[in-house]
Design brief:
There is one protein chain. The protein is an all-alpha fold. 68% of the residues lie in helices and 3% in strands. Strands 1-3-2 form a three-stranded antiparallel beta sheet. Helix 15 runs antiparallel to helix 16, helix 16 runs antiparallel to helix 17 and helix 17 packs antiparallel against helix 19. The longest helix is centred in the middle third of the chain and has 31 residues. The radius of gyration is 30 Å and the shape is elongated. 31% of the residues are buried.
Length: 377
């Protein structure tokens, strides 16, 4: 302990955290409490250190210099692990051990092997004393490393799964877990998993702010709508190229129709009912973007199950309340509805609902948005 203390202080600051000293000495387990504090009390009696509010302080600069001399002449009996653990948390001395470990793990992502990075994060995740927030950050940062730097989506998703019991009611964990599953293209089941993660989270009835609930509901609407619309378009493609029998086509078509009707009821209509009397621009940017994304896909579902009036209502609310940079997808939806209700105005060609803007007031709106968008490029 006498030599270890010299690794945690310097001439300009003779203080350090007792918890850090315990870490580098590998004396954090309750079974070793007596050994650690007996040794510490001996140093206090000898007036080598004093302690106060979780900190120790070397009694004088002269004693510190003596410590350095002894350290420089240490024998082979000195535990090399002490030096290794000291290097791991070589940071601000007033930073907690766990925060120092997190800082070290984050830094290792750019210079260490994957095994070394994993060991750094596992050390934090497996420590019983690691605070909840630091453990959650370590989990997310390690998963992000696996995805962004190693393209290992499945390993990252398994990591999230391993800590589900601890974080299952955590909004931030749920957002990252779901979005990472949705981004995984290695297997089609991952997108269903992304939806299931949010749905299971809601079933637990966690405490959420209104904006957090709206954000997650918007994401859920987006995911479910994209999935069923993509599957419907794929089904039409197979039918066009005669890759599926009429009977199988009808079965899948009706199943998808039922799913669209369910999505319209929930989460789509639920999302719209919650923001119907709310000023969208009053929401935070992150919440607003997820809500608008959800409403855009809700409108697409409404169009596909012939709920055009609801689609118009949603689009008109968004266009009337938000700045023009948010309008384009909703003007497009209005133009699409106009085509289905008045196909003769577009020569029965949906592409004309977008390109032949002279024939529709919605087309004029779209043209205005598109021209301004092009001008800003």
């Amino acid at each position: 302990m006498f030599l270890a203390i010299s690794l945690l202080v310097d001439e300009n600051d003779l203080t350090g955290l007792i918890s850090t000293l315990r870490f580098i000495l590998n004396k954090e387990d309750s079974e070793t409490d007596d050994d650690f504090f007996n040794a510490l009390n001996e140093l206090i009696k000898l007036k080598i250190v004093t302690i106060e509010d979780g900190f120790f302080r070397v009694y004088s600069l002269e004693i510190f210099k003596l410590m350095k001399i002894y350290y420089q002449n240490k024998g082979n009996e000195f535990d090399g692990g002490i030096m290794s653990r000291a290097k791991i948390i070589d940071t601000d001395k007033r930073t907690s051990t766990e925060q120092a470990l997190l800082t070290n793990a984050d830094a290792s992502r750019f210079i260490s092997t994957e095994v070394e990075v994993e060991n750094s994060y596992r050390r934090i995740l497996n420590r019983q004393k690691t605070p909840y927030e630091i453990k959650r950050t370590a989990l997310i940062n390690f998963a992000t490393y696996l995805i962004q730097q190693k393209s290992k989506f499945q390993k990252a998703l398994k990591l999230y799964e391993d800590y589900f019991s601890l974080f299952k009611k955590d909004e931030i964990y749920t957002l990252y877990y779901s979005s990472n599953a949705w981004a995984d293209s290695s297997t089609p089941t991952s997108k269903y998993l992304a939806i299931q993660i949010i749905e299971n989270f809601f079933k637990l009835k966690p405490r959420l702010s209104s904006e957090s609930y709206l954000k997650l509901l918007g994401i859920l609407t987006t995911y479910k709508a994209i999935l069923v619309v993509t599957e419907r378009d794929d089904l039409k493609g197979k039918s066009r190229f005669r890759e599926i029998s009429k009977s199988n086509y009808d079965i899948l078509y009706n199943e998808q129709k039922e799913r669209m009707q369910e999505i319209f009821k929930y989460p789509g209509s639920r999302l719209y009912s919650l923001i119907e009397d709310i000023d969208i621009m009053g929401l935070s940017t992150s919440c607003r973007n997820h809500v608008l994304d959800g409403l855009s896909h809700f409108t697409e579902i409404a169009i596909r199950i012939n709920k055009n009036n609801v689609g118009k209502e949603v689009c008109n609310k968004v266009i009337s309340e938000t700045s023009e940079n948010y309008h384009k997808p909703f003007v497009f939806k209005l133009n699409k509805i106009d085509f289905f209700e008045n196909p003769e105005k577009f020569d029965n060609d949906l592409t004309n609902a977008i390109t032949d803007v002279k024939q529709s007031e919605f087309g004029n709106k779209l043209k205005s948005v598109l021209s301004k968008s092009e001008g800003s490029k």
